[in-house]
Design brief:
heterodimer, A: alpha+beta, 60s Ribosomal Protein L30, Chain: A, 2 domains, 4 strands, 11% strand, B: mainly beta, Rossmann fold, Neuraminidase, 6-stranded mixed β-sheet, 5-stranded antiparallel β-sheet, 5 helices
Chain lengths: 196, 432
């Protein structure tokens, strides 16, 4: 009962802060046009307000977890568990390639599962390249990498409106330099849970 | 006569003075083309001293082109300021082909009268002479215009000393952040001024054919979007901010359209945007490949662009109305960032070889490719409007600098230390 009460308060808070009720989202998903919540959701995707959606959901989960103490397993949002494959938020690429390596498939499957379980969560995929070659071509290559990740996540159950895709090409290097070691660190897609 | 043209350019390296107020300085780093010996006599001065040393600016311009070898100042036997004071025999002894003399006199504190005369020493004949009246602030620009006239008179080609360069500079703040600036300088790198500053990346500046506007990509809204900015007023408009990439703007020769890369349909494709109407037409339709970096052929009907539709980035040609694209580059596994000379004869591009990137030039008729640079970190080639030189970005001591190379690969120039990383150069059209 206590738990229910605090959940209700939380839901109210979430509502006040202009966020989507995660439960309501699920229900109204079938008819995106009519529900007020769903409309908000759509705006969120294009305007970047989506961050608050994700935060709302996390607040809920986190608060419930705080009530329960003394368990062995990690308590809290899966995203905060350093042992979870979800803690891997960077996928690296070979030179001039947008193919995802076998070892990253498991990580991506975990992210996809999380996204399909939490349909109100939005993720931003930031594509990056190393500094070699044409800046404009690299801008396109960064986008292609981000889209390759999106495709895999969608194949595993995430929905297209859970994504923001942006490419920075070679404009935001993780490591300065044009040698092979720097290149390995720079050719990447960063998975950023919006609002976290 | 021909013999007297032969003068090792290496000599120039020690003779070239550094320009005091140029943040970027041109320096000739190599080249073996015969340079024409010319005597540039310091101009006479009457009245108030001029704030610019006009003859010195001209001397630097001519030397930096690599096509002239100005005589060392110590070798000038006399200081004539007009024809009556010239003894041509003396100048023949010095094996100088050309002789430039002139005068600067103040009309009042703000206005100056400048006159110059260029002589053929062997024929004892005036080739060209002019007189101007300009405000003090116009002296430097006038000096570059006189350099253009001298260059054109002696080489038969258009001079580009009074053109401008656009480029992007990046400075690291003490707090570890980056500050980007879109800058415009004189063609010799002097007078760099910021036309846009941002905390987010700026890239791919492209000049309108009249030199009045720049289009570029800015990340100021969190992703790549295309803007057009008027140089005089500073007014700027977002012209492409669709979902996905908005990048690689290139101005059509008639100034009415921009070729762009947009990925709003899910994949980077080439589009043409009519600026007045906002009408957008799609040029490429290859949903598997990256199509980007379109540039207009001088005929205004065709585009060259980079595509990896064949597996690796190569340059292709397509009608601006769309249709089938044909491949243009066949040498090497990586060719990108094409630019075309105004005369339509040459294409320059980034040419990848074993993980290194060089500036190359391809004869568009014969298809012959020549690699022009050596450092292996060269990108963003941009033709000078006289089709003779190619400006590009490279690295020195881990820092981005600008350099130029003649289309025949014989004259190399470096626009030196500026304190910031510089990149993404674009050479302006000739000012009308």
């Amino acid at each position: 009962m206590k738990l229910l009460k605090s959940s209700a308060v939380l839901l109210a808070l979430v509502w006040l802060s202009g966020c989507t009720n995660p439960l309501a989202t699920k229900e109204s998903e079938a008819d995106l046009q009519s529900g007020e919540v769903a409309v908000e959701d759509r705006n969120a995707e294009s305007s970047g307000i989506a961050g608050e959606n994700a935060m709302g959901a996390d607040l809920g989960d986190g608060a419930e977890a705080q009530v329960i103490v003394g368990e062995d397993a990690f308590q809290g949002n899966e995203l905060d568990d350093p042992a979870s494959p979800l803690s891997n938020r960077i996928v690296y690429f070979e030179y001039d390639s947008s193919s995802v390596r076998a070892e990253d498939q498991q990580t991506l499957a975990a992210h996809a599962t999380y996204l399909s379980d939490n349909t109100n969560v939005t993720i931003r995929l930031e594509g990056h390249t190393d500094e070699r070659g044409s800046r404009e071509y690299n801008l396109a290559l960064g986008e292609r990498r981000a889209l390759a990740i999106r495709q895999i996540l969608m194949l595993h159950g995430a929905s297209i409106n859970q994504f923001e895709v942006v490419s920075f090409g070679e404009e935001r290097l993780a490591v300065e330099g044009s040698d092979d070691a720097a290149g390995l660190q720079n050719r990447r897609v960063e998975l950023i849970y919006v609002g976290r | 006569m021909i013999k007297s043209w032969l003068m090792a350019l290496s000599l120039l390296i020690t003779l070239l003075p550094w320009q005091a107020h140029a943040l970027l300085t041109i320096e000739i780093t190599g080249g073996s083309e015969a340079a024409l010996p010319i005597a540039v006599v310091p101009f006479g001065n009457e009245g108030f001293a001029a704030p610019e040393d006009i003859s010195e600016v001209i001397r630097n311009d001519l030397a930096s082109s690599g096509r002239f070898a100005p005589l060392p100042k110590g070798d000038l036997i006399s200081s004539p300021h007009d024809k009556s004071e010239i003894n041509f025999k003396d100048w023949r002894l010095l094996r100088s082909e050309g002789l430039l003399v002139g005068k600067v006199s103040s009309v009042d504190g703000e206005t100056y009268q400048v006159q110059f005369q260029l002589f053929d020493v062997y024929k004892s004949q005036q080739l060209i002479g002019k007189r101007y009246q300009v405000p003090a602030s116009g002296l430097r620009r006038l000096a570059h215009q006189i350099s253009d006239l001298i260059y054109q008179t002696l080489t038969g080609e258009v001079g580009v000393f009074s053109t401008r360069l656009a480029f992007v500079s990046v400075v690291n703040t003490p707090a570890g952040q980056k500050r980007y600036a879109l800058q415009v300088s004189d063609a010799d790198g002097a007078n760099p001024r910021s036309v846009l500053q941002s905390k987010q990346p700026i890239l791919s500046p492209s000049w309108s054919p009249d030199g009045e506007r720049l289009s570029y990509v800015s990340f100021e809204n969190g992703k790549a979007e295309v803007f057009v900015q008027e140089m005089r007023s500073g007014r700027r408009d977002s012209v492409a901010a669709f979902k996905g990439l908005n990048s690689a703007p290139s101005w059509s020769p008639d100034g009415k359209k921009l070729a762009l890369t947009l990925s709003k349909a899910g994949n980077p494709e080439i589009y043409v945007l009519e600026l007045a109407s906002g009408k957008l037409s799609r040029v490429t339709h290859n949903s598997q490949a990256i199509d980007t970096e379109a540039v207009w052929m001088p005929n205004g009907r065709e585009l060259l662009f980079t595509s990896d539709r064949g597996g690796r980035p190569q340059i292709y040609k397509v009608s601006a109305d769309g249709g089938r694209a044909s491949r243009v580059t066949f040498e090497g596994r990586y060719n990108a960032s094409a630019d075309i000379s105004a005369d339509g004869r040459f294409m320059t591009m980034v040419h990848g070889l074993n993980g290194k990137y060089y500036i190359a030039v391809q004869d568009l008729d014969s298809g012959a490719v020549q690699v022009l640079t050596e450092t292996g970190q060269d990108e963003s080639p941009s033709f000078a409007p006289n089709s003779r030189n190619i400006l590009y970005a490279t690295e020195q001591n881990g820092k981005g600098i600008l350099a130029a190379v003649s289309v025949d690969g014989r004259i190399h120039q470096r626009l030196g230390e500026s304190g910031s990383d510089v990149r993404e150069p674009a050479w302006s059209p000739i000012r009308k």
